[in-house]
């Protein structure tokens, strides 16, 4: 039977968008890490009898009838959706789901609070989460969550139909995942990748010390604002500013061309596969390294990062316990991947059992479906890494300037068209008023 799946994803895994278009239309959903788990979900679900369509993050209750007609199931991979700043979007998603008549499957959702799982911090979103989970469970057997912290939170809200399944991103290669250190110890000459959440200010001294010691260090940002900074320079309100975190073009990592950002997971993973080590605060930055076969180490700074690290046995420390003088060599020596490697097949079985419970097939158990997906990735040409303007090839800079010029012209034409339309509307309205006056 042919299954039509609507997948909540910003874009499909083979949709090629330029960095400029990605920035303008936010095709990464604020954070490139979103594409890592949504594309992995797409690959898992894309069997020979399943057609997977990305939703582009559209959440319009008025489209519910069309969704009911066109699709057989709505699959919703989520990250840290149970957080204060996301509550309004959760409410909008709930309104859509309440109008759906097809099954709704949520997997990988997580709560975001501090590493101590502070229950009171989540209290303001309790009602929004209850409404969302209730709507999902009216259309699903269970809800799949990231880890034990989210499971505990939902149980305090009265829900028992909760499965801990991790995040689909770790199952990009099915039940095959092995991370091994390629050398006995790390040296300062080795290739080290750094991930940073710009709001984790305690990373500042760690960034500075590694910048001084490791000549082959590279910073791999994930956020939309930094993509814009790489493409077009600092925003007007940021020009001339300096910060210890690499968020402005004045930072040494920018001026020395040591920043690389990717707008697709595939180029990101390929780049990381040539590194010796990856560390920092980004959970999907860490996972991208691991699925690329590169040793990764996480600084867990909140519950969402901590529970995934615990579930998958990812080497980690609590950010609050990381000293400013910590060194990548020390982290590399400390990291042990045996539990991650040895437990992967069992965790994959948990994920596939969850999908089977919800009548969803898995590509890895469907002939060469997973291999066909990988071939299509290999045959698609994605944009290369985005680098700082100062290090960009002149031809590429000219192309960016031309893109800005063309976009500016389009905006002018749109505004002119809008103003012309508004003027015509005013003339028609004035004519109508005059006609009514004459007819009195």
3D architecture notes:
The protein is α/β, with parallel strands linked by helices and 440 residues long. It is built from 18 helices and 11 strands. The strands form 2 sheets. It has a 6-stranded parallel β-sheet with strand order 2-1-3-4-5-6. A 5-stranded parallel β-sheet has the order 8-7-9-10-11, with helices on both faces. 43% of the residues are buried.
Total helices: the number is 18
End-to-end C-alpha gap? 67 Å
Structural class: alpha/beta
- The coarse overall form would be globular
> What sequence of helices (H) and strands (E) makes up the elements?
EHHEHEHEHHEHEEHEHHHEHEHEHHHHH
Radius of gyration from the CA trace?
Answer: 24 Å
How is the main sheet built? Answer: 6 strands, parallel
Low-confidence stretches: 430-440
The total strand number stands at 11
> Which band does the percent of strand residues land in?
5-15%
Cross-sheet strand order for the largest sheet: 2-1-3-4-5-6
Indicate the percent of residues in helices: 40-55%
Oligomer type = single chain
Name the average pLDDT: 92
Q: Which features characterize this protein?
A:
alpha/beta; 440 residues; 5-stranded parallel β-sheet; 6-stranded parallel β-sheet; 18 helices
What does this entry show, briefly?
The chain has 440 residues and is an alpha/beta fold.
Furnish the topology, listing elements before pairings.
Layout: E1 3-7, H1 19-25, H2 33-45, E2 50-54, H3 64-70, E3 73-77, H4 87-98, E4 104-109, H5 119-122, H6 126-137, E5 143-145, H7 148-156, E6 162-164, E7 192-195, H8 204-213, E8 217-219, H9 224-232, H10 252-255, H11 265-272, E9 277-280, H12 283-291, E10 296-300, H13 303-312, E11 316-318, H14 328-334, H15 338-342, H16 344-357, H17 369-379, H18 394-438
Parallel strand pairs: 1-2, 1-3, 3-4, 4-5, 5-6, 7-8, 7-9, 9-10, 10-11
Helix pairs in contact: 2-12, 4-6
């Amino acid at each position: 039977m042919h299954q039509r799946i609507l997948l909540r994803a910003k874009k499909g895994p083979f949709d090629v968008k330029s960095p400029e278009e990605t920035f303008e239309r936010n095709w990464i959903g604020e954070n490139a890490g979103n594409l890592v788990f949504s594309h992995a979900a797409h690959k898992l679900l894309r069997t020979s009898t399943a057609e997977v369509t990305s939703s582009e993050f559209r959440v319009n209750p008025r489209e519910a009838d069309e969704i009911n007609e066109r699709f057989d199931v709505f699959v919703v991979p989520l990250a840290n959706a149970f957080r204060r700043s996301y509550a309004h979007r959760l409410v909008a998603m709930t309104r859509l789901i309440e109008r759906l008549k097809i099954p709704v499957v949520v997997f990988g959702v997580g709560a975001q609070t501090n590493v101590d799982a502070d229950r009171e911090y989540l209290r303001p979103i309790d009602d929004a989460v209850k409404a969302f989970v209730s709507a999902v469970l009216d259309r699903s057997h269970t809800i799949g969550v990231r880890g034990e912290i989210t499971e505990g939170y939902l149980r305090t809200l009265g829900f028992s139909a909760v499965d801990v399944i991790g995040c689909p991103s770790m199952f990009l290669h099915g039940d095959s995942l092995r991370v091994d250190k390629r050398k006995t110890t790390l040296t300062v000459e080795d290739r080290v990748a750094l991930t940073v959440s710009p709001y984790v200010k305690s990373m500042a001294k760690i960034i500075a010390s590694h910048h001084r010691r490791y000549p082959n260090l590279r910073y791999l940002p994930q956020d939309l604002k930094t993509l814009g900074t790489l493409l077009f320079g600092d925003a007007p309100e940021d020009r001339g500013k300096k910060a210890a975190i690499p968020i402005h073009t004045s930072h040494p990592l920018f001026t020395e061309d040591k920043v690389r950002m990717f707008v697709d997971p595939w180029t990101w993973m390929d780049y990381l596969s040539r590194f010796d080590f990856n560390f920092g605060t980004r959970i999907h930055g860490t996972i991208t390294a691991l699925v690329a076969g590169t040793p990764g180490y996480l600084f867990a700074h909140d519950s969402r990062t901590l529970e995934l690290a615990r579930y998958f046995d990812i080497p980690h420390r609590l950010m609050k316990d990381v000293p400013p003088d910590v060194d990548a060599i020390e982290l590399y020596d400390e990291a042990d991947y045996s539990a991650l490697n040895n437990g992967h097949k069992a965790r994959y079985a948990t994920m596939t059992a969850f999908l089977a419970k919800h009548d969803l097939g898995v590509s890895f158990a469907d002939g060469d479906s997973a291999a066909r997906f990988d071939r299509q990735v290999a045959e698609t040409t994605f944009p290369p890494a985005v680098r700082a303007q100062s290090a960009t090839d002149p031809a590429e800079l000219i192309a960016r300037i031309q893109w800005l010029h063309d976009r500016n012209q389009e905006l002018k034409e749109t505004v002119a068209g809008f103003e012309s339309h508004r003027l015509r509307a005013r003339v028609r309205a004035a004519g109508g008023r005059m006609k009514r006056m004459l007819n009195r």
